[in-house]
Design goal:
Length: about 130
């Protein structure tokens, strides 16, 4: 079997721009690649500390690979990110919609879940805190 090197989610959204300040301003991610489509962003890669997330718009997928677009779900995705300082993340996300308030879990995580501006759920967890 070949080695698996990395898993990167691609979030399938109507528009990318509403999510930018969530990742860049609040959490410090940087754009590493962007592709325009119809005078907006059609595809975007963001990275920070070895974590990578990609966005692609429905219109961009339809233009690039119509057969794939026909099979794509119309709902968002759910991300789970392990962090080393949940307090700092929580401060950075002040004012962002909480889907699950901060809690301790049976599997040893201290975590919160929010909805980012493009509609996807993002969980942040610190283990052993």
């Amino acid at each position: 079997m070949p080695a698996m090197k990395k898993l990167t989610p691609i979030l399938y959204v109507q528009r990318i721009e509403p999510a930018l300040s969530f990742w860049e301003d609040r959490l410090g991610f940087a754009r590493t690649a962007e592709v325009p489509h119809d005078e907006r962003l059609g595809f975007l890669i963001l990275q920070k500390d070895g974590v990578e997330v990609m966005y692609q718009t429905r219109d961009s997928v339809q233009a690039d690979a119509p057969a794939l677009a026909e099979r794509m779900p119309m709902e968002g995705s759910f991300l789970f990110i392990e962090v080393d300082d949940l307090d700092a993340v929580e401060r950075a996300l002040e004012g962002v919609e909480r889907v699950v308030p901060r809690r301790k879990t049976p599997y040893g995580a201290d975590e919160i879940f929010v909805r980012e501006p493009a509609g996807n759920l993002v969980g942040f967890a610190q283990f052993g805190a």
